[in-house]
Automatic annotation (TrEMBL):
BP terms from Gene Ontology: phosphatidylinositol dephosphorylation
Protein name listed in UniProt: Myotubularin-related protein 12
Keyword vocabulary terms for this entry: Cytoplasm, Sarcoplasmic reticulum
Phylogenetic lineage: Eukaryota, Metazoa, Chordata, Craniata, Vertebrata
Subcellular location: Cytoplasm, Myofibril, Sarcomere; Sarcoplasmic reticulum
Highest taxon in the source lineage: Eukaryota
Amino acid sequence: EIHIKDPIEKEVNPRLLPGELLLCEASTVYKYMQEDGSNRGTYGKLVCTNFKISFLDDDSASDDNEPQFKNKIVGENDITLQCVDQIYGVYDEKKKLLTGQLRKYPEKLIIYCKDLRVFNFCLRYTKEEEVKRIVSGIVHHSQTPKLLKRLFLFSYASAAPNNTDGRNQTVMFETLEDWREELERTKGNVKYKAVTTNEGYRVSEKLPLYFVVPICISEESILKYEGRGIPIWCWSCHNGAALLKMSAFPKEQDDSTSQMQKAFLDGIYKTISKPPYELLKTDDLSSSLPSLQDIQTAYTRFKQLFLIDNSTDFWATDVKWFSLLESTNWLEIIRRVLKKAIEVVECLEIQHTNVLLIEESATDLCCVISSLVQVMMDSYSRTKSGFQSLIQKEWVIGGHGFLDRCNHLHKSEKEEAPVFLLLLNCVWQLVQQYPPAFEFTETYLTVLSDSLYVPIFSTFFFNSQHQRDTNKSGESLKTQSGPFRFLTVWDWSVQFDPKAQAFLNNPLYAEKPKPDKSQRKTARFKHQRQLSLPLTQAKPSTKRGFFREETDHLIKNILGKRIGKFINSSDEPPNSLREFYDSWHSKPVDYHGLLLPRIDGPEIKVWAQRYLRWIPEAQLHGGGTIATAAKILDLMEEVQSLQVKMDEEHSQAVSGGVRSVPMLRNSARLSSLFPFALLQRQSVKPALPTSTWKDLEDEDDLVKRDDEFVDLSGDML
């Protein structure tokens, strides 16, 4: 039974952004908490605008108890229209997917979001007319195909005052000078040149206005096939070897065209294989990495593990966690992508060969691999401004189709694929393995992934620089004709105040390289709700006793098939690559030098902060990375205050340079879901029927054991 309390008649109005219009609303809507069946929640008003769906309760009107990490654009109970994944209606306790025109209106609405939040709204106490308006309005504005100019991006750009900083030290790569400076920074300007051939987009609408090619490539060659078959420069290594990418020719061509294209390619390869250029290795990513369809399928399965309606669903999946996680194949795709990046690094660093990445459009997996290689090899890409400049160069200006891949316009699900999310997941693996090497935190990566669905920034809402430029002109709402002035996502002050922005910066970033042997000791993996697959390590320690080795042998026999997939597969790195990998991992880490991710077995983990942050059952009270961070920040504050006292005693002026960090007092009261969710209730595991527990116990007694050490000697006697 739902405990009905009289809703307070206090009028709560939505906070509207410039250009935001209220489209429909419904009063007396009951929002459930994500609970264990108790149906607790709160009354309020549900509204839909041309920007978001928003639930307004009495707390929405007050600014008391505001979280330390508050987004100024999207509130806790706001869902941007682009963030809506699927909408279900509940009819007589049965869920039904809502799309298009509705004949019957549901008594309950469930909204699944792309940032993995789940909202449950009860409409039983709402007026029938209001239910019709709000449900049909939400479904229409968030699920049906729309025109590009209908995006809120344009409404906001024409109405909002543009008084923001804009560039924020991020290189935008919109000018020829930006490209020349990047060439100079990487010492690539001896063999490569920035070209203006595509000014006015006369070569191709898919290519950026300016890009870099080998000096020996003529303008005539670039124009011949609209830029296809031309090696485009991404980055140069310290030893002169370079990373290049190229759009492949379409495979289905008549013989004469194919012969001409083959001859053209042969000519290009010969030209860039002669001195002063290094030897060239080509890598067709469409055959060596999973297809976009495979990536989309894996992610769709993977995210279902975290879109949880209630506590019972959580515990039902908990007992099958490892098998469900493995069956999605998402972690394996991340591992394969990281392994491919290591292969490219080895060619550049050890073999001193140029690497040419080939893909149909060179705007999907090429972007992932080239970005990862630069993050691993170039410490500048591990600073905040450097990483943002990298995303601008390889993705935004590089022509990744954000509009299609994120399906912002709901035009075609066939084009949808989480390619940019795949990159962020891979970068997160590096961030959590080597935190001091990065100036930014995992919170920064999580917020960046959320910004994919906030249509006030142009960064992630176009397929190419050409599309953005051609849609820039428009009429202002103030009847002044002129181009739209779009915001860039890199101006974080639009979303967060300075106190919240401090969560994006890593206070323990190693500003100077300090190799330390103690840093290389890998912590043994302990069991929580494990976020990686429970496989034995590929390389056993030499300091083990006989019994431990025998135990490992038994576990391998028991889990042989699963282990074999990762450790004894044909996908295992070749010897030279394995030697390079093992040799690097046997030395102390230089946080400003080359970084190689650990990719064996359980080293690839689930990005807990992004995927588990809305699930109260998955929290650790007073634990997780936030508890560690809180203690470190307290120590830093103490050190800083002592430094100030010392400076005062020596009559020295205190200079800047002290990193501003938010102080997290009472870390024991925080949970591992912080800063995205405040302290939640303690989850209680529901009682399962006796028969269910019996089935589970009979199925596998290993579930109850500690994953790190399984003593099987008793079972064998």
